[in-house]
Amino acid sequence: MTSPAFTSDTVTTPTGRFAPSPTGPLHYGSLLAAVASYLNIRSQNGTWLVRIDDLDPPREIAGAASDILHTLESFGLHWDKDILYQSRRLEAYDEALARLQKKNLIYLCSCSRKDIVQRGESIYTGHCRSGYIAGRQRYAIRLKVSKETLSWHDMIQGSQFSRLFQEHGDFVVRRADGLHAYHLAVVLDDDYQNITESIRGADLLSSTSAQMYLQNALDIEPPQYAHIPVAVNTRGEKLSKQTGAEPISMHDPARTLFKALQDLGQSPPQDLQASSIRDILNWGKQNWALKKIPSKQTL
Ligand code: GLU
Ligand code: ZN
To answer: Cα of 163 to ligand 1 centre, how many Å?
Structure first.
């Protein structure tokens, strides 16, 4: 008789990730997400991965990915394993589309943005479900979304409800320009990387329901989600390249890191301010409390 198969995956290693898009240098808001996901994982002695979300070449800036990685290293945020690049995962995305197709969950859509506006729709309510307009140059692929209300628990923001169809409509999974949509890629990659917790900016809170819906359609177990407040400028706009956010200053990383711990509600002692990056991160790891992160959406 053979002995029972040895299963090593009965205990899952807590695994987190930071997944920047290489659209510009790291700014303070993204650093907060990096620090929060890093410390939450390190406090559980888990695995922290970095993924480069480079699936939208028109929005990317040459050199931004290596610039971001260099900044992470300068802040002592060292990752485990190899970096995953979404640009190398296109076959997996197509394979998932084929699975959705088999389940009859996706359809071609020939509508341009103008068509949708002309119909007076702010979200896409399924115009092409029963057939697209032939003869158009470009077709997007959309997911059939049902009208159920989704609910889930966010580790920071608490109970969440989403009327997915009213909020997202039949959202795009492959764009008319042929690029795969962010929701599709993020869901597949989190699964591929065995991510158990997704800690990211609250600007993505409203994306979560769409991603959970896709996970369900693809038989993927969702990670736990935690959305941290996003840093905003004096006009209340999220820090980003579009709003002219300053790249993070490399002048005094220890001070910036200390401020990040403060903004994440961790109340570091004042004298930690004069410490090295390593000591600050160590303090963060020893004293980390996810529940102290403010449960608001902006800072
Ligand atoms: N790449 C996305 C962004 O930079 C984040 C993806 C995610 O954390 O789910 O906004
Ligand atoms: Zn359409």
So the answer is: 22
